Amino acid sequence: MATTFGVFTDAALTTPLAGTLDFAQAADGSTGPVVATVYIGSAAGTRVLRAVANPGVDPLVLTVTDSSAGGSPAADVTIALDETFVGRTPGASLVLGTQINGGLANAVAVYVRVEDSTGEIGLSTDLSLVLTLAEEL
What we know:
The chain has about 140 residues and is an all-beta fold. The chain is built from no helices and twelve strands.
């Protein structure tokens, strides 16, 4: 069976996140923090996502990874389940719970804030979100 769970850029779970966290920086350095929301879920209401290791017990964990030595480091990204980011540390992984149920109402909103520390002008495409190895039931 095809995998239905994924990371999406819309709450309707119709537009998958295309690979990396892309964000642009202004030429004058005035961009400031870039905030976006992504959604983890499945439109299939009968499906469940769990960690492969010890399913239903071990948590699903979302991590920011950096694919290159250039560009912004993973420590420039804060991920949270709350749009205030209170208590969240930049670069820290995010525990999503032990399972995510399918269905639009059960999609998990993840807030992403990127605060570029490099001062480099341009488009950064080296950061990605990676979820724990999971199985879909």
